[in-house]
Amino acid sequence: MRNPWGQGERLRLEILEAAARLLSELGGEQGLTIRGVARAAGIAPASIYQHFADKSALVKGLIDYDYEQLSAAMSAAEEQCPEDAPLDRVRAQMKAYCQFALDSPGHYRLMINNRPVSRTGPLIGIVRQMIEGFERCERAGVRLRIPPQRAAVMVFVGTHGRVALWHASEDPTHAHAILDFVDELVSLVTE
Amino acid sequence: MRNPWGQGERLRLEILEAAARLLSELGGEQGLTIRGVARAAGIAPASIYQHFADKSALVKGLIDYDYEQLSAAMSAAEEQCPEDAPLDRVRAQMKAYCQFALDSPGHYRLMINNRPVSRTGPLIGIVRQMIEGFERCERAGVRLRIPPQRAAVMVFVGTHGRVALWHASEDPTHAHAILDFVDELVSLVTE
DNA sequence: CAAGTCAGTGAACGATCGTTTGGTGACTGG
DNA sequence: CCAGTCACCAAACGATCGTTCACTGACTTG
Predict the structure, then answer these.
(1) Distance from C-alpha of B70 to C-alpha of B68, rounded to nearest angstrom
(2) Which residues form the HTH tetR-type domain (chains A, B) (predicted)?
């Protein structure tokens, strides 16, 4: 008997990567089909079902895959900032969030719209990360106009709104405008 | 020859209203089909094509219909506020915007996602309305922390972000939380 | 009354989708 | 070598979709 975790798991990942590639090309979940993913992965549609129970399982796997990428990007951006500049760390985190949304609009929309924003979902984890960031700011002496929880929600929600409208735009302004918006949001919640 | 603008235009409206009803029930454009609209309107699917060239024309008509409703609701809310309280007028406008998005999530998402946010689109008109509101505030002596254009964009974008996340939530908090968020946004851009 | 116009319809076409099935070929342990 | 296991696939099924077409019946016009 062959080891089911050797080739098996590797192909599962290859399918997810093919799905991610396809979603990036499509720019939306319209057209993200079993047949399309199979074509992108170079296998037969029926083979998908060897690794995923059904389409919703594949989409769920893809979303988990994407959240890992986003979370890693945000952590990396944070750790690239000096420890003694907590506000810069918050800004860097949020800008990494934006960069992901700008680079992969299809993925971003899929994550937001196809995964209920529950109190235990991955999005809430990101917000909590932001809250901790603002709490560190306050402890470091940064004056906030509102409590750190509210500041984090405000910056996060505002950023999401800006990114969502950018996605809906037919004439996307340059990315730096979205990143500047993050700075503007942060400066609004600080004194 | 019968007058083509008698029964004809009336049935066009009935189809649009049936489509609006269906979209409200569905909660999303998934399932908003020619066949479904025809069933909701009590006619045959083929009859739709007597009034709309194709499905995209019907959707476009529905979106226009929705923007009229939203714009009217915002204007009505504004005019219900006293003339000498410009900040309250801005708040009332934005809350009417929220109320529409909360009452008709399917319509709201359709409007945002299926109509490119161009410099001449209906959404920009709403933003412009907000800008004028904040300019009136400034002339009336209200102190803003940022220029009125930026304040309007900030409040509008933040509100959209909050509403969009509410739509994605599986456990929708009560509507007043979203309306409070508008107040919080306004208080952030004022001194 | 006859001719013409037009909204409305039932039935079908072609495409696309998720999913299932039965079989094939490569590889395994004994 | 042989029986067993498993990944993989071609083909098909059933459903749903947008759209087209030939036809009908009611109405208007002359």
Answers:
(1) 5
(2) 9-70
For B140-182, write each residue's pLDDT tens digit: 999 999 999 999 999 999 999 999 999 998 777 788 999 999 9
Determine the distance in angstroms separating the CA of A162 from the nearest CA of chain B, rounded to an integer. 6
Three-class SS of residue A144? strand
Fold classification of B1-52 (topology level): Arc Repressor Mutant, subunit A (1.10.10)
Q: Which among A179, A60, A175 is positioned nearest to A121, based on CA atoms?
A: A60
Mean pLDDT of the residues in chain B: 93
pLDDT, tens digit, 9 for 90 and up, residues A26-79: 999 999 999 999 999 999 999 999 999 999 999 999 999 999 999 999 999 999
Is there a contact between A157 and B146 if contact means CB atoms under 8 Å apart?
no
Q: What are the residue boundaries of the structural domains of chain A, listed by start?
A: 1-52, 62-189
CA to C1' distance (Å), from A52 to C27: 23
Q: Decide: B152 and B125 in contact? Cβ < 8 Å.
A: no
Between the CA of A45 and the C1' of D12, what is the distance in angstroms?
Answer: 13
Cα–Cα distance for residue pair B56/A96, rounded to 1 Å: 36
Look up the CATH number of domain B62-189: 1.10.357.10
Q: Are B70 and B99 in contact (CB under 8 A)?
A: no
Say yes or no for a CB contact (<8 Å) between B117 and A169: yes
pLDDT of residue B17: 96
Kindly list the residues of chain A whose beta carbon comes within 8 Å of any beta carbon in chain B. Answer: 112-113, 115-119, 145-146, 150, 154, 157-162, 164-165, 168-171, 181, 184-185, 188-189
pLDDT attached to residue A170? 75
Residue nearest to nucleotide C9 (CA to C1'): B44
pLDDT tens sequence across B47-98:
999 999 999 999 999 999 999 999 999 999 999 999 999 999 999 999 999 9
Q: What's the full length of chain B, in residues?
A: 191
Q: Nearest nucleotide by C1' from A1 CA?
A: C28
